[in-house]
Amino acid sequence: MIEFKNVDKYYGKYHALTDINLQVQQGEVVVVIGPSGSGKSTLIRTINGLEEIESGQLIVNGMDLADKKADLNELRKNVGMVFQHFNLYANKTVIENIMLAPRLVLKRDEAENKKIALRLLDTVGLAEKADAYPKQLSGGQKQRVAIARSLAMKPKVLLFDEPTSALDPEMIDDVLNVMKSIAKQGDMTLVVVTHEMGFAREVADRVIFFDQGQVVEDDPAEEFFKQP
Ligand code: ADP
Ligand code: ADP
């Protein structure tokens, strides 16, 4: 599903990713941890083409992202991303935020689109907020809308870049609970950059420890959490 082979990435002269070799299978839940500035965000941003790689091969859902001609719009139909800072459209209602991409990109039928959006809002516990604007929501609510928006595309892969780091502590659990229920459904491939070890312990299949642009450890979760 996702395969890095000898991948390197530079920002100018700065070597952000060094010789990454990594495979993620369909349906796996992989948690990426490591110090701030170690390249975790860069790593997952390469998976949906937000960052280009300089060398090596990166195959995502059958597409080689080392190829400069790779169709990133096509890729992103299957690879969703949830950001630290939500990135909702401020001038659109919650339900419009969720319906926009399926309408424009997938040409989903309007009635069907609305039905799916309402069901997803219910799933993330925000059915009553369909017509609210993002500024009327708390950070935790915004992030749950952002997750619903990603799910509306029915992606095969969903990437999370520190989704709870910008939230007040009392809102973190609501977001983690939504993420856990997605993880437990088991059909979607999840790659999650987070410091939330409870989340990792509960739902991760694998834990990758990242440092200075390199994979330092890549262990099955049960092994990772056994270590002293
Ligand atoms: P992490 O997610 O582990 O905190 P990042 O992937 O965000 O790490 O960043 C890794 C390193 O690359 C940091 O030193 C950061 O300053 C640098 N970096 C990230 N994005 C850019 C960029 N667009 N241009 C230059 N340097 C960057
Ligand atoms: P976050 O932790 O929310 O990703 P960062 O401060 O790491 O926030 O990065 C915010 C944005 O700035 C990202 O788009 C990242 O690529 C870019 N960035 C980070 N470090 C650098 C840097 N040293 N030079 C240029 N851009 C950077």
Strand order, largest beta sheet: 6-7-8-3-9-10
- What does the radius of gyration come to? 17 Å
Please mark out the parts with pLDDT under 50 across 5 or more consecutive residues, or reply none: none
Structural class: alpha/beta
**Biggest sheet details:** 6 strands, mixed
Q: What pattern of helices and strands is seen along the backbone? A: EEEHEEHEHHHEHEHEEH
Distance between the termini: 32 Å
Describe the fold and architecture.
This protein has 228 residues and is of the alpha/beta class. The chain has helices spanning 40-47, 72-78, 94-106, 110-123, 139-152, 169-185, 197-203, 221-224, and strands spanning 2-11, 14-24, 29-33, 55-60, 63-64, 79-82, 157-161, 189-193, 206-211, 214-220. The strands form 2 sheets. A 6-stranded mixed beta sheet has the order 6-7-8-3-9-10, sandwiched between helices. The chain has a 4-stranded antiparallel beta sheet with strand order 2-1-4-5, with helices on one face. The two termini are 32 Å apart. It binds adenosine-5'-diphosphate (2 copies). One adenosine-5'-diphosphate binds next to strand 2 and helix 1. One adenosine-5'-diphosphate binds next to loops. Residues 2-228 form the ABC transporter domain. Keywords: ATP-binding, Nucleotide-binding, Transport.
Descriptive tags:
228 residues; 6-stranded mixed beta sheet; 4-stranded antiparallel beta sheet; nucleotide-binding
Quick take:
The chain has about 230 residues and is of the alpha/beta class. The chain has helices at about 40-45, 70-80, 95-105, 110-125, 140-150, 170-185, 195-205, 220-225, and strands at about 1-10, 15-25, 30-35, 55-60, 65, 80, 155-160, 190-195, 205-210, 215-220. One adenosine-5'-diphosphate binds next to strand 2 and helix 1.
